[in-house]
Structures are given as C-alpha cells and as structure tokens.
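FORM 7B: Structural annotation worksheet

SECTION A. Query
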Amino acid sequence: MKISDLKHRVTLLKRVVKELPSGDLIQKWKETKTIWAQVIPLSLKKVQENEGWGEESSAPRYKVTFRNCQQSFQRLQWKEDIFSVIVPPQADEEQRWITCIVQKKEKER
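SECTION B. Predicted structure
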C-alpha cells in the first residue's frame, strides 16, 4: 500500500446517544474525521467465500483501507452514501494501515 493509492475522501462517523429529560434516548451520528482512503468494491463471489462478514444482504460491500488515525467509528460516509462497518477495523503488522469491510446502508425513510 502506498499513499498514492488513497484516492477517496471518506468521513468517519461515531454514534452518540443522549438521554432526553423525558428519559427517552436519541441517537445521532457525529463526524469525527475526514480522511483519504482506498475503497475497493468486493465481488459477490468474494463475499460468499468469506462467510461471517455480517448478515446476508444484497447491499454492496467494500474493503476500505486508510492510514492509522487512532479514531473510533461505527460507520463511514463516502460520496453521498453511508456504510456500516461489518468487519471491524484491523491494523497491519506495522500499525500503519487500517482495513475494514463496510456495507452500504439502505436509505432510511
């Protein structure tokens, strides 16, 4: 992996839960950092070979790699789409690069 491979701007999103005075909980997604990443679509065959990559779905899945930025996140935004992390971020042996598998979320209505 080289820096020149990072051609996509993605924004890391972290879930924030707040309790209202009424006792109800509300969930919001906070942007934590915008970074350069490599985003590679996974073929359906590759997804089927790796069972356990989240629940079965026809939603597109991607491998996302970026420089280690020490940020926690549960979702990311790329272009106008939101993606859920289905395989947690993992660092390479040198702790330089982080890779995770994400799945495109359906539009919320």
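SECTION C. Observations
The beta strands are 8-19, 25-41, 61-67, 75-78, 81-91, 97-104. The mean pLDDT is 86.

SECTION D. Sign-off
Analyst initials: ____
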